[in-house]
Input
Amino acid sequence: MPIGINAEKLEGLHESAQSYDAYLESGSAHAAHWRKNDAQAILMPEQQTLLSGFMREMKVLVLSGVWCGDCSAQGPMLAAIAAASPKIDLRWLDRDAHADFAQHLSINAGHRVPTVLFMAEDYEPVSVLGDRTLSRYRSIAARQLGAACDIPGAHIPEDEYNATLQEWLNEFERVQLLLRLSARLRQKHGD
Output
């Protein structure tokens, strides 16, 4: 997946990116919406078991906006997924503060958020997913909101929320399996 940034540059971006809590502190005026959604981002036992069994380290960068409704809804899901696995190193970048990086992750010629870049342990890009999962798009289309993005704090029905969380988890699992089955990494780790 060519994104036009080499692994060394991605490593620097990841290392300089913020933890979830630090990221929310940087946009504290909107953090309350995120924190409210933190309480809803609860993984089921089987989801926790899946994540605790990850064997390959993955570096993950989330390009986001604390002001964004989709980010405030889905960001806590990503944080909960990462918290359940010591193999997931999740970091956050503000889209507007990293406009040069956002150029490389544009979706449909737009700077959508959240956009998640999954990388191998050595910062080789593996996958990009954003700005919404299929469940989110289906629900928004059904409601025909008209706006490009829900406002922070907008109610998300429980079934939509759970489906969105599961789809994010599915992408983390897909990337983990891709890393686990990678000939390059299997040779490196002798497995």
Observations:
- The first strand starts at residue 58 and ends at 64.
- The beta strands are 58-64, 88-94, 115-120, 125-130.
- Residues 7-181 form a domain with the Glutaredoxin fold (CATH 3.40.30.10).
- The chain has one domain: 7-181.
